[in-house]
Write a structure and sequence with these properties.
Blueprint lengths: L1 E6 L2 E3 L5 E9 L3 E10 L6 E6 L5 E3 L7 E6 L4 E6 L8 E10 L3 E5 L3 E5 L2
Parallel strand pairs: 2-11
Antiparallel strand pairs: 1-3, 3-8, 4-5, 4-9, 5-6, 7-8, 9-10, 9-11
C-alpha cells in the first residue's frame, strides 16, 4: 500500500504565499512522477503542476510564474510553493504520485485545504 499525506494548507490573505508538502510512504520500490491537483466543490479537478524524478516540471498556465513545484527523492516528498494567491484559488489541494510497486500505479492524497481570504 502507498499513502500520501499533505500538509501546509491553511488560511492566507490575498496576495500571500503558502507552501504545501506531500510525503509518500508505504511499500514501493520507487516513485516516478509526482504532482498536485486542486478541486473545489462543484468544479472539476484542476491540474496544477507535475515533476519527474529527474526534476523536469510542467505547469498549468495559471500556475506559471506564481507556483513552483519541487521534490526531494530521498524523502519521497513533493512540494508546491504558491505565491500571489487569489481568493478564487480557495480549494482542496491534493498531491499524487506514480509509485512503482513494481507495477506503476497512481496514488492520491486526501488533500489539504487552502483558503484565500481577507
Amino acid at each position: 500500500q502507498v499513502q500520501l499525506v499533505e500538509s501546509g494548507g491553511g488560511l492566507v490573505q490575498p496576495g500571500g504565499s503558502l507552501t504545501l508538502s506531500c510525503a509518500a510512504s508505504g511499500t514501493f520500490s520507487g516513485v516516478a512522477d509526482m504532482g498536485w491537483y486542486r478541486q473545489t466543490p462543484g468544479k472539476q479537478r484542476e491540474f496544477i503542476a507535475s515533476i519527474t524524478r529527474d526534476g523536469w516540471s510542467n505547469y498549468a498556465d495559471f500556475a506559471k510564474g506564481r507556483f513552483t513545484i519541487s521534490r526531494d527523492n530521498a524523502k519521497r516528498s513533493v512540494y508546491l510553493q504558491m505565491n500571489n494567491l487569489k481568493p478564487e484559488e480557495t480549494s482542496l489541494y491534493f498531491c499524487y504520485a506514480e509509485a512503482i510497486t513494481p507495477r506503476r500505479n497512481t496514488y492520491y492524497g486526501r488533500g489539504t485545504q487552502v483558503t484565500v481570504s481577507s
